[in-house]
Amino acid sequence: MSMQAHLAAQRPRQLGQLTEFASFASVSGVDEHRDDVLACAAWVERRLRDAGLERVGVHEAGGNPVLYGEWLGAGPEAPTVLVYGHYDVQPPDPLELWTSPPFEPTIRDGCLYARGVSDNKAQIFLAMAAVEATLAVDGRLPCNVKLLVDGEEELRADRLDALIAARRELLAADLLLNTDSTFLAPGVPSVPVGVRGMVALELSITTAAGDLHSGLFGGVAPNALQVLATLLATLRAPDGTILVDGFYDDVAPVSAAERAAWARLPLDEEAIRAQAGVLRLMGDGDHSAIERQWARPTLDLNGIWGGFQGQGTKTVIPARAHAKLSCRLVPDQRMDEVLAQLVAHLERHTPPDARLTIESTLAGAPPMLTAPDHPAVQAALGALAAGFERPAQLTRLGVSVPINEIAARLLGIPAVMLGFSAPTDAFHAPDEHFSLDSFDRGLRTLVEFLPRLAALWER
Amino acid sequence: MSMQAHLAAQRPRQLGQLTEFASFASVSGVDEHRDDVLACAAWVERRLRDAGLERVGVHEAGGNPVLYGEWLGAGPEAPTVLVYGHYDVQPPDPLELWTSPPFEPTIRDGCLYARGVSDNKAQIFLAMAAVEATLAVDGRLPCNVKLLVDGEEELRADRLDALIAARRELLAADLLLNTDSTFLAPGVPSVPVGVRGMVALELSITTAAGDLHSGLFGGVAPNALQVLATLLATLRAPDGTILVDGFYDDVAPVSAAERAAWARLPLDEEAIRAQAGVLRLMGDGDHSAIERQWARPTLDLNGIWGGFQGQGTKTVIPARAHAKLSCRLVPDQRMDEVLAQLVAHLERHTPPDARLTIESTLAGAPPMLTAPDHPAVQAALGALAAGFERPAQLTRLGVSVPINEIAARLLGIPAVMLGFSAPTDAFHAPDEHFSLDSFDRGLRTLVEFLPRLAALWER
């Protein structure tokens, strides 16, 4: 039987299984869903076995189960790909905004609706299905495959980090295939080669021993909120340019090839503005909106608070004010360097009548970039073009993806991101969905990718 | 019996009664203290009768009882003074910081400790005691007296406003004597002739339909918190000068006489700095700290909030940000004018990628000034100098005092503030107290004030 006929014959069963997978309320980090998480993990474990994988087992590092399975029959000369995905999902709140219940998967308008179906259940499911189909049709895989299905991707990365550090030998591979990825736009298959890094910082401003009465001390006492506002206003120019000394020094320019590829992408600034739901786009006009989203660093205030926030009026001069901020980093910025630049800027701009406290700093993730001309990237682009019957695009993501950096650091391997969700799939939001067209074409893409990857090693 | 002998003989009884008065937990606006408030009001009603006042009764306008009593035996040729005070008190929290329980009045180190004893029970009690003593010794008062004892001063002024509006004839007088006042410093008797006004405003900034992911939209989406910080930073110069167009236009200069009196006051900038508990005083150096506290307008941020305020990091680009601010006003600023100036400034400085919403404005109280050379002010200064045996000072207060403005607006009378508490008495704070020396000297001052006031009308 041809692969095409096999996939067609198996489609109802595979779609039924994804529906089953998506019906688990596997919300990580919420006590009331602990049993759902464990049931979902057990389901994944069985599914890995059913797909024909070996050495299937549960690995833990103090958190939710992480599932593993492998097929190493291609031999030591063939490449080994470590496929990553996760079965945990975001909380479904606010429930009242869902058209159908989040854990009762429902097909409407050519899409399957359920929490976590796009992020990341359908995508990691398709990897299992591709392995199963190839083994069924060919009796073997063209390369060695290791599958790692995380249970805490939506929660934290430190325990996965520890787990991988403790199992370097088991997980050794030539390439990370990260299924937790997304297209540029619906129907625009794409391979993101870069992800931004992230650092964060929390600060406080103190101007007095305690809050003061504005009637008694208004006019002579400094106001922590005013100091904070004035300090935060020094961070960015009106056009969004970041005014922290040295901030852009290590930013690697985008190659002419990538810049040209981005200019051809079917995504104009008006579409980005509409996606964001903003009145107008912000940012330094010397760089296109796409470049600013993918290859330029950012500084965003994430939270500010201080003084009286209740109903009505309280004429207080607050003594303390707080802010949280974070930066997205791009190659070749270093996390520690950027944090030091931020702290130096804040210290230099704090007036003498206030005290600055850096409450915490977080080196969240470094920026990552896989060379756009890496052969595996080209293999992914080719497989996508075949699976989706249209040209695939070279993109980046503006977000941070810990597993890419963990794999690079602990396993010494580059990451190729190959996922089929669309930015309009409402991941992390009500009515999350995954298109059935992407389900079929994604499966064909993965089936296509494995021999293309193997071929690279044969050359 | 001479007044001096009478006061000495009665002192233990009067002090016992104040102790009784201060033992009521007459916290306004708290359901659990409703019975305490009513019991305290009943006690005040009896005390007014015992003092020899007539037409004693309870007046209400939908809130806590307001007590009234009068003695009009001086006849239509003599002046009528309306004495104001309040029996309600601030909540005693935090209880653990009290040395003795807040409603078990205790004498230590020459002071009576209890919640509300300084603000305002001792002071209004002394007015009752002065009336009683004068009637006992002289058989009459030198002027007509009306006493109004409020039950919601710590809560709101609108119901008192309505009550006075409905009883203009009953409350008609030549002068308001407001006992809810304070000395410049302990042992520095003073008559504040001015109080500042107050306006407040709450605003929001909106930059997007909803919060955005900083990975996806960082670099292109405006950030409501950054817009808010930058907007609020335009309000004040580093030295505290308010940058709102026209803000200072109507500020009346301080008379040479008042300015000279203030320069002689025993309160230097270091003492003010220490009182405020700040690293250094803030403000335009062209005006002394005292002038900035009493006779210059202010603009203070009272609260700001937006985005993520919890533990840890959330890399969000907040779509909404909020701020509350308020101004203290001085003669001849107008509330509506200042609010319009503020709104115009905020609108002008909101960038095109954000939307400003003025959530609410509050015209809290206009600034008030009694002419420093008003004969009744001079009578109060003279009575204080006699009672405390040291020169009394002409001061102002930086706070807003609604009753002064209500009396001016509804009864057409000027206010003289005559109280004996000290800024160190910890009103609104744990271990509130009132000195027994002020108890004795304050009573003598009030006994002295009535004939001095009457004498003004005889001239």
Tell me what the structure shows.
The structure is a homodimer of 459-residue chains. Chain A has 459 residues and is of the alpha+beta class. Chain A folds into two domains: 3-194 and 367-458, Zn peptidases (Aminopeptidase); 198-251 and 297-365, 2-Layer Sandwich (Alpha-Beta Plaits), CATH 3.30.70.360. Chain A has helices at 3-22, 34-50, 117-138, 158-166, 168-171, 214-217, 224-233, 256-263, 269-276, 289-294, 335-349, 375-388, 402-411, 436-458, and strands at residues 54-59, 66-71, 80-86, 106-108, 111-113, 144-150, 175-178, 190-192, 194-195, 197-206, 212-213, 300-307, 316-317, 320-329, 355-365, 368-369, 393-395, 415-417, 433-435. In chain A, a hairpin with a 2-residue loop joins strand 4 and strand 5. In chain A, helix 4 (158-166) packs parallel to helix 13 (402-411). The interface between A and B is large, with 82 and 82 residues. Strand 12 (300-307) of chain A pairs antiparallel with strand 12 (300-307) of chain B, so a sheet runs across the interface.
